[in-house]
Amino acid sequence: MSALVTGDAVVLGLRPARLPSRALALLIDMVVAWAAYLIVSFALLLATASLDDAAQAAMAVALFVLVLVGAPIAVETLTHGRSLGKLACGLRVVRDDGGPIRFRHALVRGAMGVVEILLTFGVVACIASLVSERGRRIGDVFAGTLVVRERVPVGRAAAVPPPPPWLMGRFSGLDLSGVPDALWLAVRQYLTRMGQLDAQVSWAMAVRLADDLVARTGAPAPQGVPPAAYLAAVMAERQTRDARRAFGAVRAAGGAGGIAGYGDSGTAVGGAAAMGEASAPGPAASAPHGAAHIAGAPVRTAAPPRMPSAGTASASSAPKPGPEAEPEPDTRSATGFVPPV
Fold first, then answer.
1. How far apart are CA 291 and CA 294, in angstroms?
2. Cα separation, 43 vs 37, whole angstroms
3. Strand 91-95 to strand 145-149: parallel, antiparallel, or no bridges (unpaired)?
C-alpha cells in the first residue's frame, strides 16, 4: 500500500515541528558544536604551534569542516535524524514519506546548513521556516525531509465511530484474511480523525482506503454506500470477529483446564464432571440404574442414605420367613430423588 498523505503531503499521524521548537533544538546543537570546536581548536593550536601559517590555516579549515559540518551529518545519519537538541526537544528528521533518513539526506541538509545557519547565523533558515507551511528550511526542501514531533500530548484514545445501522452484519461473509495490519491501522486512524480533515481530503482518503480494502478482499463495495460508511462497517465486522475469537478461546481454555461448565441441557461437563464421578459415594456406584461412568455422560449426585425409623428398623432387621420373600424394591428414580419415608 502506498503512503497515505493528507492534502498538505504530511504523513497521517505525524505532526510537523514549528519554528520555536526547531530553533531551540538548533540552539542546543550549536552550543554543543561550538564548544567542541573551541576546545579542539585550542588543543590543536597548542599542538601545531611550530608549524607555519599556511599549515595552521589548513588545519583550521579542516577542523571547521569536520566539527561543524561533518559531525552533525554523522550524528543525524547514525541516529536516523535525532541530534542532541532534537532529542531534548522531542523532534526527529524523517523523509517526506515518513521513513528514516539516510546519509544522502543528512549530507544535503548539512551542506545547505552551512549557508542557511553558519554563514547567515540562521536568518535564512528562520525565514524559510516561517514561509513554509510545514516549517521546512531550504535544506529540507532539497533533501526531501521533514522535521516532526515525536513527543505529542497523550490524550484519550478516540473510539472508532460505529457504522450505520442498516450496514450492521452486512459484511459477515467477507473474507478479511488477506488484509494486512498496516491497512487496518490506516483505516482506524482515518475513522478516528476524519472529522478533523478537510471534506475533500477526507473523501479522497476514504476512496483510496476503500479501494485498497476491495483489492485485498476481492469483493466489490456495495453500490450507493459511502466510502467512510463502508470502512466503518468493515472495521466493525473485524472487531466483532476478533471479539468472538478471543472469547471463544477463553471459553475453550476454561473447559480444558478443569473449570466446570454447563451444557445446553444443564448437565455438568469438563474436568469437574470427572471429579464428580470420582468422588461419588458408594450407593450411587452400586445402583443398577445409576449414572454410567462414561465420558460425556450426565453426572448425578448420589442420594443420601435414608435414616430408618424405629419401627422400620425393627421390621427390616427381623428375618422374613420363607425363601420366596421378595427383596425390597429400589425406590430411587433415575434422577437420584428419594421419596420421603
1. 9
2. 10
3. antiparallel
How far apart CA 174 and CA 275 sit, in angstroms, is 43
3-state secondary structure of 123: helix
How far is 272 from 254, CA to CA, in rounded Å? 11
Nearest to 220 by CA among 177, 185, 150, 171: 171
Q: How many CB atoms lie within 10 A of CB 228?
A: 20
- In single-letter form, the type of residue at position 158 comes to A
In this predicted structure, the answer to whether residue 300 has a pLDDT above a threshold of 60 is no
Q: Are 6 and 45 in contact (CB under 8 A)?
A: no
Lowest mean pLDDT among 53-57, 105-109, 144-148, 267-271: 267-271
| DSSP-based three-state secondary structure for 317 | helix
Extract the C-alpha cell encoding 15. Answer: 505532526
Instruction: Enter the pTM of the model.
Output: 0.45
Helices (H), the chain: 19-47, 53-64, 71-78, 84-89, 103-113, 123-131, 138-143, 181-193, 199-217, 227-256, 271-278, 282-286, 310-317
Report the distance separating Cα 287 and Cα 72, nearest Å.
90
Using alpha carbons only, give the angle 294, 296, 300 rounded to the nearest 5 degrees.
75
**All three cell numbers of 198:** 478537510
Are residues 25 and 86 in contact, defined by beta-carbon separation less than 8 angstroms?
A: yes
The set of residues, in sequence order, having a beta carbon less than 8 Å from that of 129 and lying 6+ positions away, is 18, 19, 22, 135, 136, 137
d(CA 53, CA 38): 19
